[in-house]
């Protein structure tokens, strides 16, 4: 299409002011593309200003514009012409400059700030306030729903995890609660349950539900250690931490969903992010629950050092292992928590265990005699399958 | 000047779209979703440019950065609404009803007007960035009217167990079409909701058959009626294809732009074929993928097992456990996102593209000479872009 007298080359042209298409003839000079309209008028587009629309379905052709601003378009379907122009126009694939980075960064800052303020300030404050106003029945309903979910999640196939209710063991557990006697601090009664599962863990749920796992009772070397964990969970109940948590995640999960949108598998990113946020909160809540446990145990004349001992052993055993204890054990302040428990025990004389030795044997068999036989080998192998994000 | 109708060419094909979807999908995951604005922009450029009425490709002129900006704007407003409102709803749900179901229901209800809002705004943005023959499309502001109409029609659709569906479809389409511009010309949606009854008939009747058969099983306690349910379900699937083709034809052929109009001949059989073939291809490729990865894993297992054997007596099970835990975790994450990306890519390739292809090639412009009177309209800056639609999970392709 370059030489004089060569076959004329045609293309479709729209000028961007009306919807009329023009069949135009094209010619080339050293620096310009000459576009001659049927009426005889000729436009001169500089080769260096030619831009091609990207990601076009008809990749052998070209849709050209003169710079980035105009709405005039030249549609070249002839692959030979398109190929020749690709060789001649140096800036075809240069993309339009982004002029509004300033605004984008401004709004990005605004969006991050508003999300941060909502997730880290507004939602927690409101959750804290609302948690104390939630009627006990409502909290109980919240806790019951979660409890059934957890039992279902840890169960095998369709059957939820079994509740351990051997009468003698129950009685021992009740005796332990009676000795600790937290009732003065409680907004509602604590409802204790032992689940027949290998997890070395314990939870507090909204509405005063506290769950111990068989694995934890087997791991404990004394009744005092079980009592210390129980006191810690009661601390969560007293502070209404589980209710705060539930309300907070109701608020923050939705907000995080906004940020990540529903791109491929965004749900996982969302849950992970929420986990991180909750983990940050739990450190303060854990420390408060520890403090409460120390006080409660001292008043009940049970050795608060037991909490430090079971933590220390878990740190030893599962220090860098996988499983449910990992985030527990790898907590940076784990060592501080052990020291705090030791400090709380200092100066006290604790010669009476929280329950009698006979009661302790009954408690160890609350899930049936099998549990007692297994007690030499704490069931840590199974843990990774049932990882939970609750409070421990 | 010719009075011949303008046929539509379709230039898209599976291989390049597959590549584009795959590359942009991977980048989206690698950037934790950040690249999705670029992905959307590039995919639309491809889809738009593939459709060429009268040989002149559509142009999608939207930019990724304006989508990002619109998304950020929407987040500032929505974060407050969703965070605080969800929390308060959860609180009242548990204090008044002692369960979380009302909270989820209310939260969904509370977000519904926002979804319609986002739909209209997204349509406005997309039309404002669509050009053909160098002329911009546009949608008049009017989101409030769309939101209350949508609430009303969707409410009636739910209350009437779907009987209202054709009426809803027609009026919402009319509301949007009557506010749509091509250049300085306004589009018009003619016809009435009655023309959508026929396309809907197969759906009504097949559902009636299934319900009737269900009742018959209960009353007559004769399980042989189950065959009727299977029949009704097959009929229902056919009905979906017929509805898609029928409504597209009815609504498209009654749209006018001044003197110009549209004619279209979508085929139910082709639409059903695309869905059946598309799903077949997707499921088939997935099964194939699983078989191949199973074989690869088995080979790797055999090779490593062999390596352990040659080590001799030092082999014990605990050394297997000492593989750094990061390896299975990373493998799991890659697999998880890989499955999602591939699913989307295959869906674009085997369903969205063939459907666009079919609808494009059966549609033609009647009396295109009338379009020559169309003049350019000024640019709709619309800084919010489709931010609300991006932030809310609308799950739409376009």
TrEMBL record, chain B:
The keyword Zinc does not apply. The chain crosses the membrane at residues 20-38, 68-97, 103-122, 201-219, 225-243, 273-306, 326-346. InterPro entries: DUF898 (IPR010295). Keywords: Membrane, Transmembrane, Transmembrane helix. It comes from the Bacteria. This is DUF898 family protein. The lineage of its organism: Bacteria, Pseudomonadati, Pseudomonadota, Alphaproteobacteria, Rhodobacterales.
